[in-house]
Specification:
Blueprint lengths: L5 E5 L3 H13 L4 E4 L2 H10 L2 E7 L1 E2 L2 E2 H8 L7 E6 L4 H9 L4 E4 L4 H20 L6 H7 L1
Parallel strand pairs: 1-2, 1-3, 3-6, 6-7
Antiparallel strand pairs: 4-5
Helix pairs in contact: 2-3
Length: 142
């Protein structure tokens, strides 16, 4: 039996976890909250996680460790990094390292919900993509 996809919140800071959890639950999302990389890895192996909100820095690692953990997860999950700095260089660095997005922390509900909408849109686009079967179709896509 497949369970409803959940959103994983990975933050060493209790207040960040609480705030994100409140925003997401008010919008009807099911969440899992953890504070360490090892807990994140366990959740990714045992739960149906579709999206992850993760602090840039954690007490036992950083968002890159979370992205790495998604590669061996039951299913792929997009990672949205949260950061107090959230400047352009940090944003580009996060995307370069495999994050889906980076938003400022403390998180505004509009930023969180917009990131979710964009992640779901990407998932739908990728799910609907069918690789071209002919060289003419391949050239049209390129």
């Amino acid at each position: 039996m497949e369970t409803t996809p959940q959103i994983l919140i990975v933050s060493s800071e209790l207040e960040n976890r609480r705030a994100l959890n409140e925003i997401l639950r008010k919008e009807g999302h099911e969440t899992i909250c953890v504070s360490r990389i090892t807990e994140c890895q366990e959740a990714l192996q045992t739960q149906n996680v579709s999206l992850i909100f993760c602090d840039r820095r954690l007490s036992d690692g950083n968002y890159r460790d979370v992205i790495s953990a998604t590669r061996s997860a039951r299913q792929p999950a997009r990672v949205i990094v949260t950061s107090r700095l959230a400047d352009w260089d940090e944003y580009l660095d996060a995307l370069h390292n495999g994050a889906f997005d980076l938003i400022a922390s403390p998180c505004l509900p509009t930023d969180v919900l917009w990131a979710i909408v964009q992640a779901r849109r990407e998932d739908e686009l990728h799910a609907g993509f069918v690789a071209p079967t002919s060289s003419r179709a391949a050239a049209a896509v390129a």
